[in-house]
Task: inverse folding
């Protein structure tokens, strides 16, 4: 027994230890204290003096942070800080001490951070206002201006995502500004992030004056049509950067507009560089330039800065080039990211400020409370109905949560309140797999099998149902990641992590624990209670009227959605107005929301901001277009002693652009087709049609009911709807898997009897699995607030519609597709049922 399970034990223990190690520490540590603790023993006294000097600079306002102060001292004293931290492996080829110090301090700052970083709604962050060049936009028409600004927002978004910042908010402000809000980022300690954001990324390839090389002294005479450019060279003795001068042609031979891809790589010596791949046009241009100028130097210039000037050894016809220049990895990555997303509108930084949490403390507290209650309800349900098996499921549920958080931490994801809700809902769905196994065990025990045999048999019979259901969810995740942007892609990754973690915790860890407990004789029986007894209902008979009624409700609700038009969208989709207020008395964000809601404006987003380096705070309130005045008046009336004074007002664009909306619709459409193909391949084409129909039904029903009850769509709601699609297909696969099994086990039954028997056998477990997720969502709805209520409401509706559609839509469409004829099913199956006898006629219906 132990030898058979050794690989499961090793794998489970290894992943669990990795998760605990990854999640340590949970909270941020003081940067100075942490850095001092990591210094080598021999250097502690010396570094202590540096730390004292650095703290003195911070106290004297000579540096914005300890990080900045240490960087300044290192530059002034020509120090190599990596000598204090021998455990850090800084590439030996990088001789520039300033860059080495930046790498050391960046790594120390990263390690001092807690494992789970909180999002803008829970902790706040920093924000930057970027302004597009007025003269560049003035040359454009009104529509072209909007297109240019929209394109700039898209590029900024791609650059931020490429830099690893999760869950940013990026939107237009006024006619020529862009606001970028970043959670968990310190501009004082990461100023290069802003430089990377606004870099135009204009790449030129220019010839160096023939016969010249790098010169140590600037030349006095420059030939016509050329200019002097400099690049840095690291002195191998001092580690300082020195300048080299090149006489470079003013007019480029070609630009980088035909670069199709740029990636950061390293050579065999560990030096970082950026490799360029041209498209077909660029490849031909580069081949012409290099073939006509063999043995000349070709300067590579980005945004007016000379990076390198390699010699053309031979004609380069492969359509590739590279940029070298003594980069650190972060510099190479930032350069590649900028080249992949070039800006054609110059931007400059106008404002930098810190942003407070967008949720009040009571909202965060209620959200955490709701999450705890939801988790406890699911655990209590499992233990009540499955006793010892429920305890095993709860144990592995803890492993599941631990792994999810660890993976999220390792990829740099930020935890938001909707994200926390998503994890709670994942908990509800995760126990579904355990329920499938336990219910199969119940059936095996009912026919007289021993507990050990029932454990193995139940696991094997539920295995392919679980794999099929989760495989479809993984495919949907892949589509979200492939086609989605912003919150859709982020949710795709989160759901992917949850699905894989669930498979591991249930199929590996839970099965391991059950085998050890059963085979060792520790437990000899498992009591299991039921919510429902077997039903003798003709589900096919009621399928048609149920489907007609349901489709009618879908049509009515969808018609209402179209009638409402843009009113169904929140500020995330439509944009709105933002007012800036000075105050004498700070107001609670929760109270601001309550006052606005009482005035008939539920969609508001208040935050406190302060300029970087200043303690002066300003209250900013986002409201639907034309409603900011009403909010301001309501606040003045409710809080006369607060001394509210409006100091500014502007229009903000949507944080979810049209492209994201289109990608969401495209993701849903592609998901429908993939569901059809996968289910048709794994089951049969009629099953695929039924699965696609039921999933589409659930999505439309969910959207319609959501709007009918007065809710608005925000960024998290896009993710919630897509999650409902995944849950829907999960329920449908359970029913279809049992129908397929019944077709093999009952070769003489009619198709009507097969479907009815299959649904009767899975009906109780379908209600059980739906109940666990429903309990989690209900807790969030009852005890949470704001966006949690919206998300949980969507899930409550989705759970009911998914359970209904699996029985009365998916199974019925499958029945109608085959015209109620079993022969029609078997004629289209890849593998027809095998019969025990020869010469018998098959029952047709």
Result:
């Amino acid at each position: 027994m132990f030898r058979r399970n050794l690989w499961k034990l090793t794998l489970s223990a290894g992943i669990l230890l990795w998760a605990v190690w990854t999640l340590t520490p949970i909270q941020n540590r003081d940067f100075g204290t942490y850095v001092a603790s990591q210094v080598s023993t021999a250097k502690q006294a010396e570094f202590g003096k540096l730390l004292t000097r650095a703290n003195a600079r911070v106290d004297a306002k000579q540096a914005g942070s300890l990080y900045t102060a240490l960087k300044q001292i290192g530059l002034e004293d020509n120090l190599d800080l990596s000598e204090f931290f021998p455990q850090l492996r800084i590439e030996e080829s990088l001789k520039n001490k300033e860059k080495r110090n930046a790498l050391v301090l960046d790594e120390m700052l990263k390690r001092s951070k807690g494992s789970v970083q909180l999002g803008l709604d829970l902790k706040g962050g920093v924000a930057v206002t970027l302004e597009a060049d007025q003269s560049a936009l003035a040359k454009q028409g009104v529509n072209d201006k909007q297109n240019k600004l929209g394109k700039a927002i898209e590029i900024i978004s791609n650059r931020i995502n490429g830099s690893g910042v999760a869950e940013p908010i990026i939107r237009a402000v006024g006619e020529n500004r862009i606001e970028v809000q970043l959670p968990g980022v310190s501009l004082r300690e990461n100023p290069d992030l802003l430089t990377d954001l606004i870099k135009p990324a204009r790449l030129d390839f220019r010839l160096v004056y023939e016969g010249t090389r790098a010169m140590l002294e600037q030349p006095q005479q420059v030939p016509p049509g050329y200019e002097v450019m400099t690049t840095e060279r690291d002195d191998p003795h001092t580690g300082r950067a020195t300048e080299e001068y090149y006489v470079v042609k003013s007019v480029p031979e070609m630009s980088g507009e035909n670069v199709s891809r740029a990636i950061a790589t390293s050579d065999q010596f560990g030096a970082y560089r950026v490799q360029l791949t041209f498209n077909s046009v660029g490849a031909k241009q580069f081949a012409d330039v290099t073939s006509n100028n063999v043995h000349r130097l070709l300067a590579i210039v980005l945004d007016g800065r000379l990076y390198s000037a390699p010699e053309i050894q031979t004609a380069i016809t492969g359509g590739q080039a590279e940029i070298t220049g003594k980069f650190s990895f972060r510099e190479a990555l930032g350069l590649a990211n900028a080249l992949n997303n070039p800006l054609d509108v110059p931007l400059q930084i106008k404002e930098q400020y810190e942003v407070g949490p967008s949720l009040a403390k009571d909202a965060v507290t209620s959200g955490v409370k709701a999450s705890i209650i939801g988790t406890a309800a699911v655990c209590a349900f499992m233990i009540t109905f499955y006793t010892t098996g429920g305890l095993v499921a709860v144990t592995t549920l803890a492993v599941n949560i631990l792994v999810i958080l660890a993976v999220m931490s390792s990829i740099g994801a930020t935890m938001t309140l909707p994200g926390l809700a998503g994890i709670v809902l994942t908990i509800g769905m995760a126990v579904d797999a355990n329920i499938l196994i336990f219910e199969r065990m119940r059936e095996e025990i009912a026919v007289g099998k021993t507990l050990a045999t029932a454990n193995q048999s139940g696991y094997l019979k539920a295995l392919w149902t679980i794999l099929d259901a989760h495989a479809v969810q993984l495919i949907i995740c892949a589509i979200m990641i492939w086609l989605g942007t912003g919150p859709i892609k982020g949710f795709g990754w989160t759901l992917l992590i949850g699905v894989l973690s669930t498979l591991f915790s249930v199929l590996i860890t839970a099965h391991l624990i059950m085998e050890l407990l059963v085979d060792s004789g520790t437990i000899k029986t498992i009591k299991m209670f039921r919510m429902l007894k077997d039903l003798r209902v003709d589900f096919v008979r009621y399928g048609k009227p149920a489907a007609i009624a349901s489709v009618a409700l879908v049509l009515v609700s969808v018609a209402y959605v179209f009638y409402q038009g843009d009113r169904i969208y929140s500020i995330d989709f439509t944009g709105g107005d933002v007012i800036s207020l000075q105050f004498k008395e700070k107001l609670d964000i929760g109270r601001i929301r309550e006052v606005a809601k009482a005035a008939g404006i539920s969609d508001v987003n208040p935050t406190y901001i302060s300029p970087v380096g200043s303690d002066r705070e300003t209250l900013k309130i986002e409201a639907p277009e034309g409603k900011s005045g009403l909010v301001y008046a309501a606040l003045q009336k409710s809080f006369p002693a607060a001394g509210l004074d409006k100091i500014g007002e502007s229009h903000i664009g949507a944080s979810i652009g049209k492209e994201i909306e289109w990608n969401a619709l495209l993701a849903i459409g592609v998901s429908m087709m993939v569901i059809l193909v996968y289910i048709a391949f794994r089951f049969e084409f009629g099953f695929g049609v039924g699965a696609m129909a039921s999933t589409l039904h659930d999505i439309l029903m969910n959207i319609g009911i959501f709007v009918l009850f007065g809710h608005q769509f925000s960024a998290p709601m896009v993710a919630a709807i897509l999650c409902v699609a995944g849950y829907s297909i999960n329920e449908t696969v359970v029913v279809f898997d049992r129908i397929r099994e019944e077709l093999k086990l009952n070769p003489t039954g009619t198709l009507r009897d097969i479907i009815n028997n299959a649904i009767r056998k899975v009906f109780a477990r379908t209600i059980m699995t739906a109940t666990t997720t429903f309990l989690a969502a209900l807790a969030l709805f009852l005890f949470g607030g704001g966006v949690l209520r919206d998300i949980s409401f969507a899930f409550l509706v989705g759970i009911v519609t998914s359970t209904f559609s699996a029985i009365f839509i998916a199974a019925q469409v499958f029945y109608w597709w085959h015209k109620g004829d079993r022969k029609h099913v078997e004629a289209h199956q890849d593998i027809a049922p095998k019969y025990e006898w020869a010469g018998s006629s098959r029952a047709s219906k």
About this structure: The two ends are 47 Å apart (CA to CA). The chain has five domains: 29-112, 118-200, 203-342, 361-527+536-563+658-828, 576-652. Residues 306 and 627 are 51 Å apart (CA to CA). Residues 361-527+536-563+658-828 form a domain with the Multidrug efflux transporter AcrB transmembrane fold fold (CATH 1.20.1640.10).
